[in-house]
Amino acid sequence: MGYVYIFGTIVFTVYGQLVLKWQMDQAGALPAGLWDKLLFLLQQFLNPWIVSGFAAALLAALCWMAAMTKFNISYAYPFMSFSFVLVFLLSAFLFGDPITVQKVLGLALIIAGLVVTSQSL
Known about the structure:
By secondary structure, the protein is mainly alpha-helical. The chain is built from 6 helices and no strands.
């Protein structure tokens, strides 16, 4: 069951990041003035999609708390790197973010690190 909690943490984290990016792209550019920036950002809390992104962050935190009852943090935390991989892949598909050789090599290193750190000694 512990891996389900880690999986939930990753899924809710990725969802939250992607939905926030999507909705902020829809909202447009951040205004120039400090007060205007604050108002702009506070108005985003009226957007149900933005609220769902923050709710996902809360659910991710709850899943992580549950995962911490099952694993040592030094074992579980590297699995969070899957969120980098998923956000990279989904942002390329959903938002047209560029896929570069450097990013692919970086993700390969992240995955290699996950494999190494998840091995029991």
